[in-house]
Design a protein that fits this description.
Length: 512
């Protein structure tokens, strides 16, 4: 008799640590609540993609990658971001010399793509790299072992002149199959490119749908966009439709494969920045971290289902929660983008916006984002704040400087306490830890305590220690020629730990 033993317990643990979920139940076994037997384990693998930073020759970009110190997986590990492969279209090339030249160029590009742009060597210390000009590539990468839990990366680009002027910041994203971007535009004053980056070794196919105030925009070219393996494609949204719409919602899905998606938005009069995806559709949304000196705030929301949505609009300020005058509620028609001009609603104090259903029994799922302006006239600068999930157990944002970083914390429910750790600097310095209490229904904006002896940039890690959920964002500001350039990044849970239900039985397959 030959016996083949299936180690389901080990298999379940590995699957959950990689994907975030695993359940094993033997046939005929009674179902038991997993809460009693679930264990928290660190993820063992994580992936990130970063878009090409800019199309401006004046662009100066800093990449920063970081894994927070804490419980890791295996003793060993790696965390590397490498250049995406350029897209070469030489299928119709008939000239042998040109075909050979293209083949040689592709080989060189592939060899270059195997060299990491930046690699994290140890938890708790950020690493940085720089790239200048419009030729800086998109990046794709993977972290394993002890460097996977909480691995994050940020790219920050400064463009001092031209149509892309601004401070553009974006947290590199995990690949997925579904993204919502309220606040995008096809207006003549805007140049919005959606960047689709494929981290895998097989091609992906994506669809882009656009929805304005009157519903879906007509488009014949947004379907079936091919994103080759380990490559990135930038699509100008205004080329997908003949309709010029100032505020719309872009929806990106994949037919096959997975991608990272983010929108680069440039406004002729107000600078540029990245629009990252809103949190998945939900009845209640939070957009944290409106600067105290915001001169204009515009809310853009969309209801993707079959039902209309009626939501309360509330600002969680420094001391209390209140509804802005004239914009206490917003009606969002099904499959139509709605917007509200909230003007300078913060009036000198930091705040965060919360959307909740007018009727609790009709919590229609929505997505939303804020377009925030600082300055006036030709000194304007924009940034975007998408709806984001809570910090949860832990969240991190890299690339904080000695000056210019502001951390915004808001508690939409109960009062909460958080621990904020400033990591060692990329070039030296000792970590610093502070704790904050965030009162219910308020927003607390703080200047983080920088690491002692800081050299280079550092990462901020936020952990909820007690109380209700906390939503957070980090604003990074940099003055240039009288313009207060800034960018805002949200801090959702890094999902570095996953619940792994314990397997109750072993199964054996017996063969005679």
């Amino acid at each position: 008799m030959k016996s083949t033993h299936l180690s389901l317990i080990a298999g379940a643990a590995v699957l959950a640590a990689v994907t975030g979920f695993a359940t094993v139940t033997a046939p005929g076994a009674p179902a038991e609540p997993t809460a009693k037997s679930a264990a928290l384990l660190p993820v063992e693998r994580a992936g990130l993609v970063c878009p090409a930073p800019s199309n401006s020759d004046l662009a100066e970009t800093q990449y920063t990658a970081f894994t927070p110190a804490g419980e890791g997986g295996e003793a060993k590990g790696a965390a590397e971001l490498k250049p995406a492969l350029p897209i070469v279209d030489d299928e119709d090339e008939t000239d042998p010399k040109k075909a050979k030249k293209a083949e040689e160029a592709a080989k060189k590009a592939k060899a270059k793509a195997e060299k990491p742009v930046l690699a994290v060597k140890e938890p708790g210390k950020p690493v940085v790299a720089e790239a200048n000009g419009s030729s800086a590539p998109a990046l794709v990468g993977t972290a394993t072992g002890k460097l996977a839990p909480g691995w994050t990366a940020q790219q920050t680009t400064e463009v001092t002149a031209g149509g892309s002027r601004g401070l553009l910041g974006v947290t590199c994203t995990a690949p997925d199959t579904d993204f919502w971007f309220p606040g995008a535009s096809t207006a003549k004053s805007r140049q919005d490119y959606i960047h689709l980056t494929n981290p895998d070794d097989t091609g992906a196919v994506a669809d882009i749908e656009l929805y304005g105030p009157e519903g879906a925009l007509k488009s014949d070219v947004g379907d079936g966009i091919t994103v080759p393996a380990r490559s990135s494609v930038a699509v100008l949204l205004s080329t997908l439709t003949a309709e010029a719409v100032d505020q719309l919602t872009a929806h990106v899905t994949t037919r096959s494969g997975r991608i990272g998606a983010v929108v680069m938005s440039a406004d002729d009069s107000a600078g540029s920045d990245w629009i990252t995806a809103s949190e998945d559709p939900s009845g209640t949304l939070v957009m944290p971290g409106i600067p105290a000196d915001a001169t204009s705030v515009q809310l853009v929301a969309f209801a993707p289902g079959e039902d209309d949505a009626d939501v309360k609009v509330q600002l969680m300020g420094k001391n209390a929660t209140f509804s802005p005058a004239g914009n206490a509620t917003l009606h969002i028609k099904s499959s139509m983008t709605a917007s509200a001009d909230l003007k300078d609603l913060t009036r000198g104090e930091p705040g965060s916006l919360r959307l909740t259903p007018v009727r609790k029994d009709r919590a229609t799922p929505i997505v939303a984002a804020l377009r925030v302006v600082r300055g006036k006239g030709d000194k304007q600068e924009i940034a975007y704040i998408p709806a984001t999930g809570p910090v949860g157990a832990r969240a991190t944002v890299p690339d904080n400087r000695a000056k210019g970083s502001t951390l915004s914390l808001t508690a939409p429910g109960a009062t909460a306490k958080v621990k904020v750790t400033a990591s060692a600097g990329s070039g030296g310095g000792e970590p610093a830890v502070e704790t904050y209490t965030v009162k219910a229904g308020t927003t607390l904006a703080v200047t983080p305590k920088a690491p002692e002896g800081l050299k280079g940039s550092y990462a901020l890690t936020v952990e909820t220690t007690s109380g209700g959920p906390v939503h957070a964002s980090r604003s990074l500001a940099l003055a240039s020629d009288g313009v207060q350039m800034f960018t805002v990044q949200t801090l959702p849970d890094d999902r570095g730990m996953v619940e792994v239900p314990s397997a109750r039985q072993d199964l054996s397959v017996l063969d005679d």
